[in-house]
Specification:
Elements lengths: L24 H17 L3 H13 L3 H29 L1 H20 L4 H29 L3 H32 L4 H20 L13 H20 L8 H21 L9 H4 L2 H31 L4 H7 L1 H22 L1 H19 L8 H28 L7 H35 L6 H33 L6 E3 L2 E6 L2
Antiparallel strand pairs: 1-2
Length: 500
């Protein structure tokens, strides 16, 4: 995957005709990381601001979910298309379009005079995020070709991707409490301007030397299929599982994705070539991102509720509570990709991370109204940070290792799609299960404040147990799929791992 002047995603030390290559790769990582942080934190930064936005704009509790769902629907259903567009027209160009569009959508949302405008802005954010996220990861893939540097870069990038949700909670709390909920959207303008300036100065322009052709039928089918899945699970939060609006969309989504998989074996120019998915390291990594994304949002969503509603933490204090987990995850991510995976391979590392995630979620089920942060909340958070650090960075690195340059965008998009769809499904499913658990707890009990508080605790505990189940299933899947031994390097393709 050595860069050429025609490849806009390459700024490696093998290519520096203008002096920007070798000395600026780490600045490129900073630009890419900033863009990725903007996309990931926007999935959670608005959550804390929702009560204030609802009061300001006057929308109902039933409509409140659409502020979150509009972003997830557009982002999750368009990611594969966004990745292929990056391969087609150039990663720098798509990266800049994504940044500019995301910032404009954020400005519209921040100034939204009504609920409808805010929902449209959030959908636009998701659409431009679907261009930005895969372009960012494919730029990283094609920039860092040296194995040692690649490990460090993906360690940092994986930490950003994994902790962005927690950072969003903290930043959302700070902005909502001390400024205004609208600044949860306006803050993207500052991040985008910095990223655009860096991208213009550091990234190479041009079209790919061998751009693939766009699979239009596959694009339409997979986008509709992903939309059906995300919408169906999101609808389950407000409708029963027996509702046509829930199971109908889920069934249609599964059917369309099956048609898409069949079509990819027939079309001469597949949107998602099977060579990208069928590699054992990549296939296992996609599943790892999906399952960890589904399990991780249990702690972000329900622990946030617990800290604010049960322990009466402020939004800022709630965000600060996640910082120890973030710190541990950053250190673990860098260590895992730079030291552990090159020596041991992914097979022991990612499954162990899944096991630690399961243990942390099971530990959180012990929380009650008398729990304290230092003794009861922070220890399982530290274990979770350790586990997620062993999952995300290695999975992201191996999911994009060895792909051909013209497949880098769609491989990167598949990583993001796995995490985003997993997170959307996990959030919707866990929220539905938690709500049902709370309702069942109150059956036959008086609706006193004490019983209501215990019902909330029971609902959180239910969500944590299910999250633990996701992680345990991930441990089994990754343990079976990842090949034994450390990746070896093929001298004819420095990026391609040979499985031992």
């Amino acid at each position: 995957m050595t860069g050429t002047a025609a490849d806009p995603g390459t700024t490696s030390k093998s290519l520096a005709p203008d002096g920007r290559g070798e000395n600026h790769r780490w600045w490129v990582l900073a630009v890419i990381g900033l863009a990725q942080l903007m996309v990931v934190l926007d999935a959670t930064i608005v959550n804390i601001a929702l009560p204030s936005a609802q009061k300001d704009l006057g929308f109902s509790n039933g409509n409140r979910q659409w502020i979150v769902t509009a972003y997830a629907l557009a982002f999750g259903s368009l990611l594969l298309l966004g990745g292929r567009i990056a391969d087609l027209v150039g990663r720098k160009r798509v990266f800049l379009i994504g940044l500019a569009g995301f910032s404009v959508a954020s400005a519209i949302g921040g100034a939204a005079p009504s609920f409808e405008v805010l929902v449209i802005a959030r959908a636009l954010q998701g659409a431009f995020g679907a261009l930005l996220a895969p372009a960012a990861l494919s730029l990283l893939t094609t920039t860092f070709t040296d194995s040692a540097e690649r490990a460090k870069a993906f360690g940092i990038y994986g930490a950003i991707a994994g902790t962005g949700g927690a950072v969003g909670l903290l930043l959302g709390g700070l902005l909502t409490e001390y400024l205004d909920w609208r600044w949860c959207l306006y803050v993207n303008l500052l991040l985008a301007v910095l990223a655009i300036i860096g991208a213009v100065r550091l990234l190479h322009a041009g079209r790919p030397a061998d751009p693939p052709k766009l699979d239009i039928p596959g694009t339409v089918v997979v986008s509709l299929g992903l939309f059906g899945l995300v919408y169906g699970f999101s609808n389950a939060e407000t409708h029963s599982w027996s509702s046509v609006g829930t199971w109908g969309f889920l069934a249609a989504g599964v059917l369309l994705l099956a048609v898409f998989a069949w079509w990819q074996t027939r079309t001469p120019h597949p949107l998602l070539p099977l060579r990208v998915v069928l590699d054992r390291n990549r296939g296992a990594s996609f599943l790892a991102m999906f399952l960890a994304g589904a399990g991780m949002f249990g702690v972000f969503l329900f622990l946030t509720y617990y800290l604010q509603q049960s322990l009466l933490y402020s939004p800022v204090k709630t965000g600060l509570a996640f910082l120890p987990m973030v710190a541990v995850m950053i250190v673990t991510s860098v260590t895992a990709t730079n030291k552990l995976v090159p020596r041991l391979g992914a097979k022991p590392i990612v499954p162990v991370g899944m096991l630690l995630g399961a243990c942390a979620m099971a530990w959180l089920t012990r929380l009650d109204l008398n729990s304290t942060y230092a003794a009861d909340v922070m220890p399982p958070l530290l274990v979770l940070g350790l586990g997620l650090g062993l999952i995300f960075a290695p999975a992201m690195s191996l999911a994009t290792a060895g792909v051909e340059p013209h497949d880098a965008g769609v491989a990167s998009a598949t990583v993001n799609t796995s995490q985003q769809v997993g997170g959307s499904i996990g959030t919707s499913l866990l929220n539905t299960l938690a709500t049902s658990a709370a309702t069942a707890y109150l059956v036959g009990r008086a609706h006193t404040s004490a019983n209501t508080a215990q019902a909330q605790l029971h609902s959180y505990s239910t969500a944590y147990w299910w999250s633990a189940g996701f992680f345990l299933f991930g441990m089994v899947v990754c343990g079976l799929l990842y090949p034994v031994g450390r990746p070896r390097i093929n001298p004819e393709n420095a990026d391609a791992p040979i499985h031992m």
